[in-house]
What does this fold into?
Amino acid sequence: MKNLLNLFILPVFVFCSFLQLNDLSLGRASKNENPVKEKNQIGYLFFKVEKSKSGVEKITLESQKITDGKLKMNPVFDRNSAEIGDFVISLTDGNGKEFAKQLVEDPLNQNMESFDKEGISRHKVSTETAEFSVRYSHSAEIQVVKVEKITNAGNQLLFNQKL
It folds into this structure.
């Protein structure tokens, strides 16, 4: 009976000690392999644009907010869908490496819908001042925001500021 007990208990102790050693080595490897990840955050930039009497737009950054969360989809910049008068917002680091680029339809000439007897119709409404905002996946590396206007001659820089 004593021999039979040793025959079963001894392998159980050996097996359990191997499991504990295996868990310890796996725990150390996983800590070293997984670097600390940044929190998922969403950044918001709120702008105001004013058209002067000479026709030049002046853009000011009204406010900036950062909240916890994750964007479901990052906006895709499509140059082909851009029209003259639209704004291109670029978010870069200090060296000029681009992190995000978004297209904003011309905020000073917005399309409005109205209901008539014939149905829905669209009208272009021009204003002297307007507000627009941009939403992006926040990163600590993003340091500069740049706003350009698409013109016939190319892109015209309207706003460039460090965040």
